[in-house]
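Possible regression after last week's pipeline update?

I re-ran a chain I had predicted before the update to compare outputs. Posting the input and the new output here so someone can diff against the archived version. Not blocking, just want to make sure nothing changed silently.
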Amino acid sequence: MGEEKHITAYDTYLFHEGSHYFAYRKFGAHLVTENGEQGVRFTVWAPQAGQVGVAGDFNGWQGTRHLMERVTESGIWSLFIPGLKQGELYKYEMHTKEGEVLYKADPYAFFSEVRPQTASVVYSTGGYRWRDRSWQQNAKPLYNRPLNIYEVHLGSWKRKENGEFLNYRELAHELADYVLEMGYTHIELLPVMEHPFDGSWGYQVTGYYSVTGRHGTPHDFMYFIDYCHQKGIGVILDWVPAHFCRDQHGLARFDGTPLYEGGESVEWGTYHFNYSRPEVISFLISNAIFWFEVYHIDGLRIDAVASMLYLDYGKEEGRWQPNKYGGRENLEAVTFIRRLNIVVFKHFPNALMIAEESTAWPLVTKPVYLGGLGFNFKWNMGWMNDCLRYFQTDPLFRKQLHSSLTFSLMYAFSENFVLPLSHDEVVHGKRSLIEKMPGDYVRKFANARLFLGYMMAHPGKKLLFMGSEFAQFIEWRFYEELGWKLLEYEMHHCFRKYVQELNHFYLNEKALWQQEQDWQGFSWIDADNYEQSIVVFMRSARDKRDFLVVVCNFLPVGYDNYRVGVPQQGWYEEVMNSDCLSYGGSGQINRALLEAKKVSWQNQPCLIEMKLPPLAAVYLKLR
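New output (post-update):
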């Protein structure tokens, strides 16, 4: 039934110091055998409560029948109840010093009821037989390896015919097989931690240790990750240590006082965590470790990092207090983030820790010992915003925004970037990716193919939100599945084929990822042709003969003999062209090999003449 779960003096010391990084092994509800009896040991932290009981179906929801023992003066309570089994529903009955009675879900619960029900569920996360040893043993850092992420909301990727959610096991087979076929390396899931409101998409959490029961049990979710790993697909979870929701059964005023909260977020209607409280640090860092250790995940994408870093984030003047140095930086949050990354990488050296950080905070992806925050990747929100602004502009006026395409290279190697086209860009009236594109039906698709072709060649890892790969026209709707029937239409079918072949091309071309952390892997050939809205650049692998020349034409004007400078003599082959007929384009491709002549052009020793289609990305490779 499990090991002894008594909390020791050492556990208590670590917890109150903020360094109990495996607190979930002692806190929460654990199936154990004590004094020869099988049952459940419950442990919770509630320092200001006058009395705490465990209430559930087993005692008619009368917590006074099972009062917990205050095992430390610091407010840790514990109780063993014999005879309880997996699946029991429970809450903590908090009697505050003011006489209130609060019924609280377990902060460390491993499973919970599905909304609108709110009880915690006794569940042992042990006993699953993992089959991903080969994946775990072959894990490697991804700095100079391909990383192409398919971002997914499980509740709306696909549903059953009656509209119900798919189970994690059903999703495992359908989703992992699809992602493998499409050429992605990783799936990133919008938060799967238990949350009460579907419309929060999982970003307002009540059960940080509890995988949502909307799609099945914790063991079902383990099967999902296990199956992905067996297929060679990594799994990244969105994680929300910035704020939590106000729901009465959750963390808010947990023992009748602001125990976990350190302030309010007016923008989201939530509470910020109190990063100055060591026990909260133990809770959060343990939670990150929990998902790696118990569920074998490959990475966390940390949501809303900017809101953690800045005391004035989303606040009007006069609604925030500066730090002790008079600045706007949240010093406690910075300390927490650095410690989080140090601890995660100590225990899981190959983890992905990806920051969604939208400001110019320096050294986000640099090690803590160098003054950095310690993440190993960061979403490049600047690139995303610049590119979306450019591509939404009518081509007639794009030359005025030419620097939006090229400016990102001024800082492309200052951090380890992921280029995100995420869920946030296809909701709330922002329109879907294909609908953002200007022009008629055909030109919308041409622009979208060009955008993804440019993105794939730009330094940085890649992320695309579900539905964008087949050009869904409507915005994402969390309450229904994607518009898969669109694939019956030729242009959508062709577009998905393009994304699929572009993804596999990326996986196979070392020039696109082997040297993307510095200028060794990228060089401009022509960055300044704003009059024709054309850019030409080169991506290089370590082998100097392994390079790609990328030509992107952002206007609906084609050229039969466009001159491009290249670094070596020889014959060049067109290896990818977004204008291919099979992708839904006009079919203006370079069928024959292109000979590089010894004529200086665009600061290169040689030139080629090529057919350059309108609104297209073309990749050339030396034979």
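Follow-up from reviewer: compared with the archived run. The longest strand covers residues 37-45. Marking as no regression found.
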